[in-house]
């Protein structure tokens, strides 16, 4: 019987770690140090493809990191809003319904 493959488990880095990885990569590049995705992957215990994806999405990650709160820095994924008009209409409906509730009858 052939041995079972032992694949590393999937690991998501928090947003703050992704930003730090990008910063480290840029610092090494500016010092003309040859850095590979494999070396960064070993350091952060992720796969080289994860490092590649993080570096491809660098602008979005860094922009979100600048605007993020401390709680958001713990996030691991950034989601694109694909249905913007529907989401905006739903949020408008929700706000309208919430404003119509008689707040004096609510018990806290």
UniProtKB/TrEMBL annotation:
Q: What is this protein called?
A: HTH psq-type domain-containing protein
